[in-house]
Amino acid sequence: MEFAWQMGSVAAFSGDAVVAFAFSDKTLDGALKDLDGACGGALARVCGTKAFKGEFEDLFVTPLRGGEQLAILVGLGPRAEVGPFHLRRAAQQGVCKAQGLGSVQVAIAVADQAPSGVEAAAEAALIGGAAGAYQFRRYKSGAAETGVERLTLVTSAAVDAAVQRRAAAIAEGVAIARDLVDTPPNDKTPDLLIKTVEEIAKRSGLACEVISADRLREMGAGGILAVGRGSAHPPAMVVLRHDGGEGPWHGFLGKGITFDSGGLDLKTQDGMFTMKSDMAGTAAVVGAMHAVRRIGVKGRYIGVLALAENMTGAGAYRPSDVLRMLSGDTVEVSNTDAEGRLVLADGLALLRREGVQDVIDLATLTGAIVVALGTHRSGLFTNNEDHASAVLAAGDLAGERYWRMPIDPEHKEALKSSIADTKSTGGRAGGSSTAAAFLARFASDTPWAHLDIAGAAYRDQPEAGPGATGVGVETLVRFATKG
Ligand code: BES
Ligand code: MN
Ligand code: ZN
Questions:
Q1: Which residue's CA lies nearest to atom 7 of ligand 1?
Q2: 324 given a catalytic annotation
Q3: At residue 165, what are phi and psi to the nearest 5 degrees?
Q4: Measured between alpha carbons, how far is 399 from 83 in angstroms, rounded to an integer?
Q5: CA of 52 to the centre of ligand 1 (A)
Q6: What are 295-354's pLDDT values in tens digits?
Q7: Is there a contact between 369 and 432 (Cβ–Cβ < 8 Å)?
Q8: Which CATH class is domain 2-139+146-156?
Q9: Taking the complete model, does pTM exceed 0.85, yes or no?
Q10: How far apart are alpha carbons 399 and 301 in whole angstroms?
Q11: C-alpha span between 22 and 111 (Å, rounded)
């Protein structure tokens, strides 16, 4: 998809559909007034009626220019409550609707919907709009389906070229992550996923280094090696680097289980079906590193992907195996379905060797976080309040929602092993916190934030089709751009 920027009135746009926003407190902004002129006052008449109250997620479609064009009005709710999340979601809904009605050339009219100004609103509209047009069509044979080909941001004031570039880079990063997660697991075994990531890195100009299973063996990365042993496709780590000048390196780490069968502690059919998405953390890191590179962010960022397939082959690791991890710690495996924390533990040890100043890991780590928070929010765990605040602030800018979760001494206590330094799981109670407590051992004194995205990474999205969401990409980018 192409992005275009135009300043001025939407009335001049000649494409298939115009998406515009309205508040529930009825004030028609400039963009809406222009559009209203083009449809003979129909918008002003409908706003505030039962047909369209302007509440968040309300949607109203009406023809323009004798049916040649569509106006799609999307509600934002009360003006005072509108934030980055609402703008992205509304743009996503509007563009998705336009696409569903066959539109190829779509404009989004942006005025001063964001409290922080036109630029922020336009950026949110582009990112949300692009997400709304996202389709995963690679495996559909037959006649080519159509979709939105060009998204034009029509703004009431000039938008800085750097902001335009940043928005496009983020939208691309999100689409990259969603493509990776939606790809079926037979086409993204660790070896195949590495090829895809190498191509992405080449395109964006990221340095990309692969740490093979042989090398992991020499290094003593017993966690990721154990998880990969039941698969015909060996595990690996990938290190992506963006060196944007001086200063310390910041680490991003993604869980990259390309398929999670549970291992010998096998999952049920229902539990297993969505487990191609168990590399959504890795996908987010790839998408974010792509965007960080494209933006040319100042500072140094290193992204580690911990890739393995959790299967039940003859070599599979067993419950009660004791592993020696890259950090030197020993782990008693209490459940082979708790594989994510093992690959992440070795990833954290690798990043500590790199001497990073801080780490953010993203992982579809526990079913318990879905029970606790639902699918619209992810859990944030940390060993450092300042770092956590920076990540939460980035999440707010990105319109991605997190909730602070605890790691208590009791959660650490639950991991005590009678024969090793720690067990890998702490039982059902507080499952997300005991998983985080396990990771905290390996983060050690490196400032660290852990985002458990098991709920938000993959779901049925009535507004934009089922599948991957790309969650986490923008949070990482906003962490890096600090704005
Ligand atoms: N990948 C799963 C977690 C998951 C569950 C992600 C549902 C997305 C949706 C993870 O590897 C897992 O199996 N976790 C176990 C941990 C347990 C064995 C301690 C879980 O949550 O049941
Ligand atoms: Mn698992
Ligand atoms: Zn898993």
A1: 367
A2: no
A3: -65, -40
A4: 7
A5: 41
A6: 999 999 999 999 999 999 999 999 999 999 999 999 999 999 999 999 999 999 999 999
A7: yes
A8: alpha beta
A9: yes
A10: 22
A11: 11
Q: Which of 341, 377, 412, 459 is catalytic?
A: 341
- Name residue 420's amino acid: A
Report the alpha-carbon distance of residue 443 to residue 122 in Å, rounded: 38
Q: For 170-481, which CATH superfamily applies?
A: Zn peptidases (3.40.630.10)
Q: What is the pLDDT of residues 365-381, one digit of tens each?
A: 999 999 999 999 999 99
Q: Is residue 267 annotated as a catalytic residue, yes or no?
A: yes
Which letter does DSSP use for residue 268 in this model?
A: P
Distance from Cα 25 to the centre of ligand 1, integer Å = 43
Mutual angle of helices 84-100 and 385-398, in 10-degree steps: 40
Domain ranges of the chain: 2-139+146-156, 170-481
Which amino acid type is present at position 382? Answer: T
Q: Which two tokens stand for residue 191?
A: 């070896």
* Amino acid letter, residue 313: G
Mean model confidence pLDDT for the chain: 95
